[in-house]
Amino acid sequence: MNRREFIQNSGLSLMLAGDLSSDLLAAMKKKPLVSLQLYSVRAEMKKDPKGTIEALGKIGFKDCEHAGYDGAKRQFYGYTPLDFKKLLSDNGMTMQSGHTQFGKTHWDAATKSLTDLWKTTVEDAATVGQKYIISPWLDVSLRKNFDDLKGFMDAFNVSGAYCKSKGLKYGYHNHDFEFSLKLTSKRVYDIILENTDPNLVVQQLDIGNMYGGGGRAEELLAQYPGRFELMHVKNEIDNGKGGHESCVLDKGFLDTQGIVKTGIKSGGTKYLIIEQESYQNLTPLESMAADLALMKKWGY
């Protein structure tokens, strides 16, 4: 190799190395956050929230999503927002998302404005360190007919705009009725997604809840690409009673690993939240350890 060839090849190598570094950095930035929904350890959190958070930190969790905010007392599992944030921090954890139902007590239909109760809820979510505030349920009274449900989606959009102004994102979490229930021949879930602004209302896709109602995660990810910023990562097994229940992530009939990959690739998924409500022959904490180990094995 002469001097000119050496310089050219060296330059090419440096360019390729630079491109590779850029690709690796981009891949690292896109790697989703892995968390767990504290409803998975609900009995433990009710009995001993401090000890449970300590145990989760030792297992290796760096983040969690709550299901235990008391709006009247403005507390998370009996702690003030700042005190709960400190408990998490002391154990190497954050809480970037939380479940708080948005309903009629949070929306003044006459004035089409948010109530003070919702505003303080958003304030506390920001104080504890949340980036997302997710409504995990839609009251039955709000889904009796098409017009009422479509009208309440205006409240979702207003909540989304308000949360955005406070540095958070507002979102909705599905169960099963959104797929089994139709209003004027349209599924509830389609009504929700078609009447909410994607820039104001994110979706948290629960890949297990929907199954009993006829929803299929793969189909939704294809139907609404880019809409599912958060995902509840689950697997399901037959419960022997004509239904199903959640289980360790590699034990059920869902292609959980494949769904997660699709969510990241085309669903816009940035936040993977493990949830398991049934445990078969394991304890809840043992289940969480097994689930996290699988997520790490899968590369997350």
Gross morphology: globular
Work out the helicity level. Answer: 40-55%
Please give the order of strands in the largest beta sheet.
1-16-13-12-9-8-5-2
Return the structural class.
Answer: alpha/beta
Distance between the termini: 44 Å
- Low-confidence stretches are 12-17
Number of strands: 16
Output the radius of gyration: 22 Å
| Domains (count) | 2
Could you please describe the fold and organization of this structure?
With 300 residues, this protein is an alpha/beta fold. The chain has 2 domains: 29 residues; 267 residues, TIM Barrel (Alpha-Beta Barrel). It has 11 helices and 16 strands. A hairpin with a 4-residue loop joins β3 and β4. 38% of the residues are buried. About 2% of the residues have low confidence.
Based on the model shown, name its key terms.
2 domains, 16 strands, alpha/beta, globular, 44% helix, 300 residues, single chain, TIM Barrel, two-stranded antiparallel sheet
Short description:
With 300 residues, the chain is of the alpha/beta class.
